Structure prediction request, 205 residues.
Amino acid sequence: MYNVLDKLKYVILEFQEEFSKRKRERNIVDFNDIEHFALKILLDEEINITVKEKKLIDFISKDKIQIIDKVSNWKEALFISGEPLIEKNEINIEYIHEIIHIAEDFGVHFVLENEVAVPHGEVSKNVNKSCISVLSIKEPVYFSEKKPVTLIFLIGAITATEHIKSIEEIINLTKRKEILEKIHDMDNVDELYEFFKLLDKEINS
Prediction:
C-alpha cells in the first residue's frame, strides 16, 4: 500500500509543481489555487476533515465504458474517452482540450505502467460532476514514443480529494498484468462492467 501511495504522490506532485511554476511565471491564480490555500490553512489549524472515499466502481457505469479496435492518435483517444461524459454533461468538451494542452506543455505524466493512462485536467474547471470513463483499445495508441496505451480511465473531479480511493485502485490495477490482459481480451461492454464489479468485491470485501 505504501508503494502505491508513494507513486501516486510522486506523479501528482511532479505535475503540480511544474504546473504551479508556469502559473506563477504568468501571475495566474485560479480557483484550484484558492481551494488549495484554504485547505492548507484548515490543516495548519488542525481541523479534522472527513472525506467520503468513493471507489472506482462508484464512478463506472455501462454507458461510460467503451471498447474499440484502434484510434489514429492519442488525441482522438482522449476525445473518444470523453464522449460519454460529455453526453451526460459531466464534463465540457473544453475539458478534453485542456488535457491535450497540458499534455503538450508538460508531457503525458498521466501514462502509468502496463499501458494504462489516467488523463485528467484541473480540479473543477470544465467539470460539472466528478466522473470516470473507461476506454479499452485493442491496438495500442502511443502518447509518446515509449508510452503505448490500451486502457484509459479519463477522470473529471469537482474536488481535489474525491478520487483518492479510485486512483489508488487504478494504480493497483496497473501492477496486475494478468487482470489487464483479461480486460484487453474482452469484447463486450456488459462483460467488462461485470468484471469491474467482481474486482471491486475482491478489492473491497
